[in-house]
Amino acid sequence: MTNVIYNTATTLSGFIADDDDALDWLFVVDQPDDDSFGSFLASVGALVMGSTTYQWVYDHERLDEHPERWRASYADRPTFVFTSRDLPVPEGLDIHLVRGAVADHIGAIAAAAGDRDIWVVGGGDLAGQFYDSGHLTEVRLSIAPVTLTSGAPVLPRRIEADALRLTSAHARGQFVEARYEVRYPRR
Ligand SMILES: NC(=O)c1ccc[n+]([C@@H]2O[C@H](COP(=O)([O-])OP(=O)(O)OC[C@H]3O[C@@H](n4cnc5c(N)ncnc54)[C@H](OP(=O)(O)O)[C@@H]3O)[C@@H](O)[C@H]2O)c1
User: Fold this and answer.
1) Does ligand 1 have an atom closer than 6 angstroms to the CB of 52?
2) Domains of the chain, each with CATH number or no CATH
3) Residue nearest to atom 31 of ligand 1 (CA)
């Protein structure tokens, strides 16, 4: 079975972006000096993200003028952007706009990933939709020593301890990387 991994950085207080969708609080935190992200990315065959996350990358990387910056981050990995809108997609990038239920798209996403994993980049509700549909297999959090009082929630679902099993926890720079296997006890 394909691993479907929600891998994100989060504050201690459970937010992945502030109220303005800004990540300044994240970029000032000391990063790990290992290549843990590179190793993770090597295991990824396809990416999934919601439209706010895609739009953030599009705007911050100025993809309209510099589409090559997408490849610099994600190479040629197929990416599925969940949106009800007709968002701009730079020519030549393997980006698919999809909408509706995860169940309607998981087959195509898994096929695109091949024998590698699916990275749910965010946001939190989209990760929740993958959980709801029974396809999320891992939650991997890099917890930053930052608190915010509001913002975009990391995983806005009620998921209790019988459904999340801690499989590892490591200090990486100023982050704690915690990995949780997702179990579906009710199914
Ligand atoms: N800290 C980190 O490492 C990290 C990681 C990822 C993201 N982020 C940030 O966190 C924030 C997340 O934003 P967000 O909470 O708004 O989440 P998001 O998942 O990026 O975007 C949510 C939007 O995606 C669309 N969407 C979601 N599910 C859909 C479905 N099933 N069908 C059709 N459209 C669907 C909807 O917009 P439309 O239909 O109107 O398009 C929805 O409002 C962003 O600022 C992002 O940059 C941070």
Assistant:
1) yes
2) 44-152 (3.40.430.10)
3) 100
Q: State the distance from the centre of ligand 1 to the C-alpha of 125, rounded, in angstroms.
A: 7
Q: What tokens were used for 12?
A: 């201690």
What are the tens digits of pLDDT across the range 152-173? 999 999 999 999 999 999 999 9
**Ligand 1 atom with minimal separation from the 101 CA:** 31
**Ligand 1 geometric centre to CA of 48 (Å):** 10
Longest dimension (CA), the chain: 48
Which CB contacts under 8 angstroms, 24+ apart, belong to 110-113?
110/2, 110/46, 112/45, 112/46, 112/78, 112/80, 113/2, 113/44, 113/45, 113/46, 113/78
